[in-house]
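SEVERITY: medium
COMPONENT: batch folding queue
REPORTER: lab tech (J.R.)

DESCRIPTION
The queue accepted two submissions in a row. Attaching both inputs and their returned C-alpha cells so the on-call engineer can compare them side by side.

ATTACHMENT 1
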Amino acid sequence: MIKRLPLIYVVLWALGSGQVCMAIDSESLQDPVLQTRYTHIIAELRCLVCQNQSIQDSDAQLAKDLRRQVRKLLREGKSDNEILDFMVARYGDFVRYRPPLKSSTLVLWLGPVLIAILGVFMLIGTLRRHLGGADEVE
C-alpha cells in the first residue's frame, strides 16, 4: 500500500487539476429569436483559452467577454454573418469551429484526408511485404 501511495497522489492530482470549463450564462436575451441566434452563434465560436470548447461551454474569462460581445452585437441588430465576421476579423479564422475553405485553411481541410491516404498506402505496402515474404519461405 505504501509503495502505491505516490501513484495514488499522482492520479488524484491529475484528476483534480483539470480546468473546470462549464459555463453558466446568467444573462439571457428577452427576445426568443435573438436567444436562439445567440445560442447558435456562441456554439460556432471556439474559446481561445480552452481551445477544445466553444465559448458556449467555456467558463474562461475571455469566453465570458466574447459571449457579452455577441449579445451586444445582437442587440445592435447585426446579422449572424456580421457577428462571425467581426470575431474573425478580431481573432482570425481559428475562432471558428468550422473555418471557411480558402488557401490559408486548406491544410486544415485536406491534411487529415492526405494523412489517411498515406496511412492506407503504408498499410498496403507493409501487408504486401509481409505476405510476399511468407510466400517465399514456403
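ATTACHMENT 2
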Amino acid sequence: MKPQPYYIVPLLIKQPTWGGRYIAQFKGIEKQISDGTKIGQSYELAKDSILLTKKTNLLPFLLAEATDIANPKWCGPQAQTINIQQLSKISLLNKFTQAKENSYQVHVRPGHEFDHWQPKPESWYYFEKGKATLGLKNNVDIDQYRQRCKQIYQESLTLSQKVKQNNLKIDEARIQLTTFIDQDHPSNYVNVAYPDKNQVFDLSSCGIHHSWEADPNLPHGNILYEVQLDQRDEVSSIRAFDQGKIKDDGDIRELAINDYFQALNTNPDANQPALYIQTTNSHQENGAVITCIFNNPHYQLTQIEFSNSYPGEETQLKNQFHHLFVKEGRIEIIHDDQSWPLNKGWSVFIPAQCQQYRLTSTTTAQVLKTTAGHTV
C-alpha cells in the first residue's frame, strides 16, 4: 500500500451527566447529533482507531454510549476503512474532552506499581477556562482525608441499597448524600485550580490527585485536549470519591480508596499545582509560529500556527508517525502532489513512511501535532 495520510474516524462518547454540545459544535456536526445528546469525549487517536482509506467530502464519525464503547454507531457516509493497527502500533490516546465533576483519582507512578495498577501519564491543554482540583493541600491530614472518603463511600452504599430495595426514592437519596458530603467535603483536602484558556498541565509524572470540577461561571465545564498513554481505565484510574453520584437504578461506582492513598505521592513539594503548569515556548520557523505545548518521554504536542503555506521542519516525519488535529481554521495536507482537506476539530494520521508533507491554508490556522517516542 502506497504511503498516504489517513482521515481518522473519531469516536464520540455520550456522557448524559457531564457532557455537552461543545465538541459537536466545534466539529460542525451538531445538526447530525440529536439536540438532547451530550458528548463528553471524542477519541481523536487510539490504539484501535478506524482510518479512511479514501478521501471523502463528508467525514463520518462513531457515536457510542459510555457504557458500551466497544459497539459504537457509524454516523455519516459509508466508506472503506482500515484499523490503525495495520499501519503502526499506537500507545497513545488523544481525547477532545468536555467534562465536569469527574471522580477524585490518581494514577500510580512508574516504578511504584502495585497489584494490577499501571501508570497512565497524561497531559492537558485547556481550550477554555476551567476548574480542577490538583494535588493535596499543604499540611493536610492524610488519615482524616482517607477516613472522610470512606465515610462518604459507606453512606453511598447504604443509600444505594435503600433505593434498590424500594425503601427510598432516588431523588431523596441524592439529596441525603449531598447533605452528608457537604458536612466535610473532600475538596477541603485538595487544591482547587482555575486553568486559563490555552494553559497547559503536564501530569505525566503520575502520583498526583486530580479531578475536573463544575462551576456556575463555567457552563461548558472543562474543555481540553488530552494526550495520554492508552491504558485501560480499570487498571489505571484509582478513585476515592465519585462526587456523590447515584445512578437512577441505585447503582454507584466501585471505589478503591485504600489503593488511591497508597498510590498518592504525598510529598508536599510534589503537590503544588504550579509544578504541573507548563510554560510554552514558541519560535518562528518558515513563516510559522511553532509552540512546544508539552514534551516528555512518553509523547510530544506541538502547535503549528501558520498562514498560506508551511513546508518546514515540523512536517518532516523522521521515522515516526504524526497525528494532526485542527484547532483553528481549515487546512490542506499536501503529500505526493495530492491534497487532504481538513476542517476545524478533525484529525489525520500520517504514517512515518510518508517522510514529509506540507500544510496550506487560506486563513490563519492552528494545528496540533502529536508524536511519540522521543526522550526528553
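NOTES FROM REPORTER
The mean pLDDT is 95.
No errors were logged for either attachment.
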